[in-house]
Structures are given as structure tokens and as C-alpha cells.
Design a protein that fits this description.
single chain, 79 residues, 3-stranded antiparallel beta sheet, 3 strands
Length: 79
Amino acid sequence: MNQNVIVKRVQSIGWEAPTQGFCKFDVDGSVKNLGQSISYKGMQHDMDAIWKVGCNRKLGKCTIMANEVWGILTSLEQA
């Protein structure tokens, strides 16, 4: 017998508060014009979702990986 089994998993995606005494830095990047204009933005929140600090940087032409690394670096610098 040939049976095709399809398994589906539903997962809620949303913001989760960090542990008490810690902050969370969320970073998101964007790409326009097939990689000609790349930028990212980030926000730091505490456990009560209160905004602490943010950043926004236009990187121009670069790779997606470079965009992610810049976002991580900026997060660590502001932590």
C-alpha cells in the first residue's frame, strides 16, 4: 500500500518577554532593488515590553549576511 502522510504543525509566532532582569533586542532587515539598498532596524525592550533604545541603519549595497551581522553587532553594542 502506498500512502502519503502529510503532517502539519501549527505554531504561534509572537513576541515573548525576556527573563526578569534581562532585555531583548529584536532586529529586522530589509532589501530593496535586488540587493542594491539594504537596511536594518532594531529595538530593545525590557520584560514589560517597554522600549529602551532603538537603531536604524542604511547599509547600501551589501549581502544579506552582512546585514544580519551588522544587526547582531549593533545589538551587542547597545546591550
